Amino acid sequence: RGQVAGSIVHDFNNLLTLIAGYAGIVRAEVAPSAQAGIDEIAAAAERAAALVAQLQTLGRTQQAAPRVLDPADVLEANAAVIERIVGRAIEIRWDRRDAGLVVVDPDRFEQLVLNLTLNARDAMPEGGTVTFSLEREPGATVAQRHDVAARGDYVVLRVADTGVGMDETTRLRCFEPLFTTKGLKGNGLGLTAARRLMHDSAGSITVDSAPGQGSTFEVVLPVHLEGTAAPTAVPVEAARGGADTGDVSDGRRAATILVVEDDPAQRRLVERVLARLGHTVIAVGSASEALARGADLEGLDLLVSDVVLGEGSGDAVARQLRAALPDLAVILVSGTARADVLAGIEGAIFLPKPFLPSDLVSAVDTLLAPPRQRGVGSNR
Q1: Distance between CA atoms of 76 and 82, rounded to whole angstroms?
Q2: Model's pTM, two decimal places?
């Protein structure tokens, strides 16, 4: 099952990128009365992306890559997505305290947060409130509620909703594989993947719920102490979402951008988004063509490349072009690879598929910003 899941992930994420991408473009061009339908398309694409990530986790088609991260940064980076997922009928409350660092796979932890958000939304069909809170607790206190070691401190993440709640039978079974109360709407994978992630990370997840009283999911992870051995920290990806891209009119500087994508539909989407911003775009379909064209472009500012190409790879293209153009900015995109492919490519940005046009625009603007406006992580 894991091999089957892995074999379809790349192509399926490409399709989801097209769906979400063109939904974002069309939304900016249609009348306000039609935008609600476009929003539903984008939301459906996000749910499909969540399902793909769950299949990858359960099938172990992605190698776990734990990193040191701050859960508060994950909530901040995904705030726009969370707001879009829950919709206008649900109020979001935040209590993001400085609870400490943890060691966990960043992609899988982000997916856990989004899965809990989806569950909270579905539990409140008539609207309500979902609260995200973070705090730090002693291990002895946490061990009274969770099957974890009592030593040290733990970061405690709670996602609480005011929804329909669960009876005791449902509460006891909700983490079972394929168990769902959502009928055809559910797949029974999200909470199973969350429990597996906690098991792999020396943490735990529980739920407190009762009919008509809402549900509170509690996630605990050991606090990582600075100075102790742990994987190298990586920055949390920039926030998804934001305004949909339109014609350039906000002072962006025009740049020359080389796009490398072996899927023609994906290539057309990226080319269209960037051209609408006033950039000069050279789009090619292979690594060899990218190296040939890139060698002739002394004024090349930015490379945007898929990682998985028919022959060669995007990260290899980036390294070779950087050898000739040290100031070249780089964005690598992929539906199967991980941010680890950026190793050795200083200042590059990793953009996971599926992504929205606004995600791509944000990444491009970050790398092409003047030095005094640019944050940490750019090479330009």
Answers
A1: 10
A2: 0.51
Task: List the one residue out of 52, 45, 96, 48 whose CA is nearest residue 74.
Answer: 96
- Could you tell me if 50 and 115 are in contact, meaning their C-beta atoms sit under 8 angstroms apart? yes
- CA 230 to chain CA centroid, Å, is 23
190-200 vs 32-59: helix crossing angle, rounded to 10: 50
Q: Extract the tokens encoding 317.
A: 């293209």
Tens-digit pLDDT profile for residues 283-306: 999 999 998 887 777 789 999 999
What residues does 243 pair with on adjacent strands?
none
Instruction: Output the CA–CA distances (angstroms, integers) from residue 312 to 30, 194, 307, in the order listed.
Output: 40, 34, 9
Q: What whole-number distance in Å separates Cα of residue 231 and Cα of residue 65?
A: 8
Which residue, among 121, 101, 140, has the nearest Cα to 50 in the 3D structure? Answer: 121
CA distances from 120 to 85, 127, 367, 377 (A): 10, 10, 36, 34
Quick one: CA dihedral 313, 316, 322, 325, positive or negative?
negative
Residue 161 is encoded by which pair of tokens?
A: 């909703």
